[in-house]
UniProtKB/TrEMBL annotation:
This is F-box domain-containing protein. Residues 1-48 form the F-box domain. It comes from the Eukaryota. It comes from Rotaria magnacalcarata. Gene3D superfamilies: Ribonuclease Inhibitor.
């Protein structure tokens, strides 16, 4: 019987391509020099999703502690310099982001995010300031104020102050009924402004909020 060790690299890669990146790295990184080299391919380490997604409900869930522990203690310290995209859930995201410096990181997807995390880590001194693509699902349970005006005044300016090179911003929300409405009307273009933003996905409260998107504060906005 032929084992995976005996297969040519091309066949091993075909098998691995049927797995997700998390399983490939968790199962094969460090097994031997050959597998280690294959697993370090940009295909597997460029984008890392450290959360589990239910294909039926389209919701994200935490990975088992044993997997997160292994990633934090062994895998991420080896590949952090090559990671360009991270997809994170709330229970482990702070631990992962503070673990290493990610010099090539440009894309961040937070499956849920709360007010406390935003104001501790979305700052002008944050190591995340070079992010160009940001997707975040607002967890309404974790914001002290749920009004559209307060979300606009607190959250949106904080994002643009932190991420000065932002090209794409997506206020992602899978459950339509829980989508937060955000009000930009009345916000000064001095605090709600981006010279680089090209793509924006946002649920605004009123038509006046929509008009604010086209009043010159986002000169590069195309979509």
């Amino acid at each position: 019987m032929v084992g995976i060790m005996d297969l040519p690299n091309e066949m091993i890669i075909k098998i691995w391509n049927n797995l997700n990146n998390i399983d490939v790295l968790y199962s094969f990184l460090g097994v031997n020099k050959r597998f280690d080299k294959l697993a370090r391919s940009p295909v597997y380490i460029r984008s890392i999703q450290l959360t589990e997604k239910n294909s039926k409900t389209n919701r994200f869930y935490p990975l088992p502690d044993s997997i997160i522990d292994r990633y934090c203690s062994d895998i991420l310290p080896q590949i952090h310099q090559c990671i360009e995209c991270l997809i994170l859930e709330p229970f482990s995201m702070e631990r992962i982001l503070l673990l290493c410096v990610y010099p090539r990181l440009r894309k961040l997807n937070f499956t849920k995010i709360g007010e406390d995390f935003v104001f501790r880590h979305f700052t002008e001194k944050s190591p995340l300031i070079n992010i160009t693509h940001l997707s975040l699902t607002i967890d309404l349970k974790w914001f002290t104020s749920l009004s559209a005006i307060d979300l606009g005044e607190k959250l949106v300016p904080q994002i643009f102050r932190t991420f000065r090179n932002l090209i794409e911003l997506d206020f992602n929300e899978n459950n339509i009924e829980r989508r937060p409405l955000i009000s930009l009307y009345g916000l000064s273009s001095m605090i709600c402004y981006s010279s680089s933003l090209v793509n924006l996905s946002i649920n605004v409260k009123t038509f006046n909020d929509c008009l604010c998107l086209f009043d010159g504060r986002f000169p590069q906005l195309r979509k």
